[in-house]
Amino acid sequence: MAIHEPERIWWNPLSKDERVWVGVALIWMLVSFIFMPIYHLVGSQNPPSTTYSVKADDFDKLVEGMVSKYKVGEENGFPVVHPDPSEPVFIRASMWQWYPILELEKGKTYKVHLSSIDIQHGFSLQPINMNLMALPGYDYVIKLTPTSAGEFHIVCNEYCGVGHHTMVGKMYVK
Amino acid sequence: MANTDFRICSLSGLKISRSSELLIRWNLIAAFATLAVGGLMGLLVLLTRWPSVHLLPVEHYYRFLTAHGLDALLAWIIFFEIALVHFTSAVLLGTRSYVTWLGWVAFALMLIGGALINTIVVLGRADVMFTSYVPLKADPLYYLGVILFAVGALIGFIHFFINIVLSKRDGGFKRSLPLGSFGLAAASIIGILTLAHGAAIFLPTLLWSMDVIPTIDPSAYRLVFWGLGHSSQQINVCAMVAVWYMTSAFVVGGKPVNEKLSRTAFVLYILFINLASEHHLLVDPVLSSWHKVVNTSYMMHLAVLASMIHAFAIPASMEVALRKQGYTRGLFEWLKKAPWGNPAFSGVIISIVLFGFLGGITGVIFGTEQFAIIRHNTFAITGHFHGTVVAGTTIAFMAFTYLLIPFIFKRELIWKGFAAIQPWLYGAGVATLSIGMMSAGSFGVPRRHYDITFSGAPFSFTFDPAIDMFMSMMGVGGVLAAAGGLLFILIAFGSIIFGKKLEQQ
Ligand code: HEM
Ligand SMILES: [Cu+2]
Ligand SMILES: [Cu+2]
What we know:
The structure holds 2 protein chains of 2 kinds. By secondary structure, chain A is of the alpha+beta class. Helix content of chain A is 24%, strand content 37%.
């Protein structure tokens, strides 16, 4: 019993049911295991991994550079930016804003650089529900090709202080 | 040691020493108390997340959420596990707890650490969630509290090995530990490894909060923190599985059908689970994709294999035992005639089923790259771990409490009728809560979020209206779970204080 010392020899062979069960479970696990790398190679929903380290000030300059070059409007005090797909695009997280509002073109591929200039934030693009971490000191590069036009929102889903629930940003795809 | 130090429990036949009895009792009392606090916090947080109630003001919500995570996940579970350490390394072996003072040092450190953490959090000096991701900063005393608690727990797990070594010398066992003790040995090994990660991350963070170290890299913090935070969940899994086996033995006389198989499965947990920690970082910058894929897929599935083995072996042990008692008609007479009215038995069955189907399966799914990106930090994650650590571990520990109260406190349970329904009520509540959270999360509803209508935000966004139903489901389930939790606390403390004394030699 589980509460008594087992008999002298407990290294006994498995019975048939046990062998079948363990065999089926093992095969199932091996299949799941093999499919993780396979999905990574053939799938199209992989989290990106290109990262640079970046200082908050430098990142800020890059963001402001893009804004002054490509600003096309303003909404609630946030600049709306329509960047050129051939150039890097930036999204800056800070307590408690996503800055600026990007206007992207459907079908074009962008390199979106995501970083935070203060603490950790969670980039959660809704309603498609795509979630990535924005860490201070790191520039996370996302290759993004919008496939549907419309209005999207960026919700913060990593706790970042009392204003966390007001940290909502916007993105357009035209 | 004089023989008068021991008594024989007439219900279980266990030979129990006074030294172990006191250590187990006080660790259990601390566990129940922290569960009561943690559960109350859980209810308040729940009533805030439920949009039609939205109870607390914003600061209190985050404060109580921090406390809920710490009291429920850290304190309740680890206090209970240290009680299990002494139960399996002394009581099951019929020997005493050695170096008793060390056990009390561990207990005192955990108690002081826990009290310090709670005080600082309630004072509003550590609104950082239990993860305390840098550079979000708490009062240095908060990190000190975590360190004190962790050092206490570390000593507690080390005590397991001191006890079994000396027990073997005194003839407590000859060659092999009983399976229940073996499970706790696995838990203690993982515990010691895990808490080393805890030291590696909380010591520098403490120094940083005192301005001794200028910065802590947020990405490195996350990596080492989850070496603690995720691996420690395997302490819980091992302890929970050990409780499943032991309950099967105590209640129906179940015998592991093949010791080799069950023990090998515990060894798989020790060897392979650490690697799975990296699934917390699947959508983080810095680590390369292949690093993540290898670490999350490769060996993790061998740990899942271990769970599959236990999921077979434990019901099998029950079936064999019940059939031996004469319930042999048809395929399922044994199942019908099983002691469903005994909350220790029903609790363990509920724990096995919910852990597997709610917690385990969702864990394996969300741990893949492609799912992590559509579930990370959403409410689905909270739903997942209320399936593992609440529906699985907490219910198993509650079930075992119904055995420990007569065995260790020498008291009969009060309110036997209520006790018989408690696991069902709590289990139904947690399952509903968890499914509600997971469904809402699949629409993108974030976890740790004060207001999903985003009042005060520069832009407004409305989730799919379907989430209203799922958030209400979470609310109703959570209230049921809170009722079941309250019932448990009342029965546990009520029995300890007012239960009929059981006379024993
Ligand atoms: C009465 C039963 C319980 C209820 C109603 C409940 C409810 C909740 C709710 C509503 C959240 C909030 C999630 C959020 O806003 O992000 C939460 C978080 C959490 N709960 Fe529970 N819970 C209960 C029991 C437990 C138990 C027993 C444990 C541990 C064993 C636990 C561990 C946690 C953890 C670790 C978190 C995450 C905290 C964080 O995100 O920092 N809960 N719970
Ligand atoms: Cu944020
Ligand atoms: Cu946030």
